[in-house]
Amino acid sequence: MKITFFVFVMVLVSCQQTAYKERDRNVYFHPMGGGVSFILPEVPTWANASSEGGCFKNPNLRFIDLGKMKKEFNLSMRANLNVQYYLNEELEVLRSKVSSMNEESGKIGLQEQEQSFFKALEKARSNFEPLKLPDFGEYHLVWYDEWIATSSEEKLKAFLKSSVHDTGVPVVFSLCLSQEDLEKKFQELGVYSFGAEWSTSFNEEGRNSARFGFYLKYFFNENKKIVFYPHNKKNINNAILIGKYEVR
What we know:
- The protein is α/β, with parallel strands linked by helices.
- 36% of the residues lie in helices and 15% in strands.
- The protein has two domains: 23-125, no CATH class; 138-247, no CATH class.
- Strands 5-4-3-8-10 form a five-stranded parallel β-sheet. The protein has a three-stranded mixed β-sheet with strand order 6-7-9, with no helix packed on it.
């Protein structure tokens, strides 16, 4: 009887391992916790801040462990960032449903996070780019967090509408606000944006530096001119924008 039970357990474990390896075929075959393990733990609101940006991050933002992703799925850095973006998109849809149901906790369970992760992974593997900039010769990067910390949103909008950008396309980025946050703020101006979902603290080797930044080469072609317009040049931090660019 014990032998029969042992064989049954071994068969069950084998089936689970096979299902885990064949994640490409059906995202729901994964054992519970598999997808959640690739999502970095939530940080308490009081500690969820960007020292570089001098701001608190949108508390709903979740980030991916790109070190684990690199080992497990062997995706490119851009593909992993796409997973991170799609994950936040999926979780936001779930939050809306939870809110409409008047759930007291407002929390998304592990099972829902698990399913959201693998949905995001499948979307990223479809090779459809959720963030694609129009083809221009010159782009002007503007750091929202730095402007707001030292000036005001009204002055930032005035700057974005100024003749400075006659030669290039303004792109606003933030380490604290989501893509949706930025799009809502600047919708009437028609500018492009990079929310915090596109940032990571991991380098290309999969090591966590604990400093978030944006890898420019995964969003802009090498032959494009990229210009960074800080509100105060004393606040330039080279760890934020990773890649080649000018400062004006």
